[in-house]
Amino acid sequence: ARSTDDSGIVIIGLGRFGCHLAGSLTQLGHEVLAVDRSPDRVQRWSAQLDRVVQADATEEAALRQLGVADFGRVVVAIGASVEASVLSVLALTELGVPQIWARATSEKHAKILASVGAHHVVFPEAETGERVAHLIVSRMLDFI
Ligand code: ATP
């Protein structure tokens, strides 16, 4: 069935980043479809998240079968495997997903993600490091 609710978001990869992202979006009231290729990860998060399915996101046919193309936004939260991340973004591009967000672990990784069709690229580790640095400095100023 085609989802007409554009608040739905697909999260691919339930590592540390992906599971927090999926949990926060769920708390914010969004319908979340979480996808991971590991049956253990799927099992682990199935109690906390509404919809968790096992699939290899590099397989366009598998994504199509899950109805991923009906969601307006998809986040590729895979980090360690550049190959899996890039091939997943490529599959989503081929499906015509309107808003593809992807996690990069390096500048080169980010360039490849953009070149295969990612609309938004985020760097969770770099962004968190930067934010915490500012937090530490601002807290230090409080005590001067
Ligand atoms: P984090 O830092 O968020 O914990 P990580 O870098 O340690 O992530 P990754 O290798 O990025 O770990 O994997 C994150 C999740 O993505 C894992 O649960 C893994 O099973 C899943 N994953 C990896 N490849 C695919 C794929 N092709 N399809 C679906 N899920 C995948």
pLDDT below 50 for ≥5 consecutive residues: which ranges? Answer: none
Strand order of the largest sheet: 3-2-1-4-5-6
Secondary-structure element pattern, one letter each: EHEHEHEHEHEH
The CA-CA distance between the termini, in Å, is 60 Å
Mean pLDDT value: 93
Bound molecule types: adenosine-5'-triphosphate
Structural class: alpha/beta
Count of DSSP strands: 6
Shape: globular
Strand residues, percent: 15-25%
User: How many alpha or pi helices?
Assistant: 6
Could you give a short account of the major beta sheet? 6 strands, parallel
- Range of helix content: 40-55%
Rg over C-alpha atoms, rounded to the nearest angstrom: 16 Å
GO molecular function, one term: monoatomic cation transmembrane transporter activity
Protein name: Trk system potassium uptake protein TrkA
Domain RCK N-terminal: 6-122
Please provide a written account of the structure.
Strands 3-2-1-4-5-6 form a six-stranded parallel beta sheet, with helices on both faces. It has helices at about 15-25, 40-45, 60-65, 80-95, 105-115, 125-140; strands at about 10, 30-35, 50-55, 75, 100-105, 120. It contains six helices and six strands; from the N terminus they run βαβαβαβαβαβα. The protein has about 140 residues and is α/β, with parallel strands linked by helices. The N and C termini lie far apart (about 60 Å). The mean pLDDT is about 95. Adenosine-5'-triphosphate binds near residues 37 and 58.
Outline:
By secondary structure, this protein is of the alpha/beta class.
List the helices and strands and how they pair.
Elements: E1 9-12, H1 16-27, E2 32-36, H2 39-45, E3 51-54, H3 60-65, E4 73-76, H4 82-95, E5 99-103, H5 107-115, E6 120-122, H6 124-142
Parallel strand pairs: 1-2, 1-4, 2-3, 4-5, 5-6
Bound molecules: adenosine-5'-triphosphate.
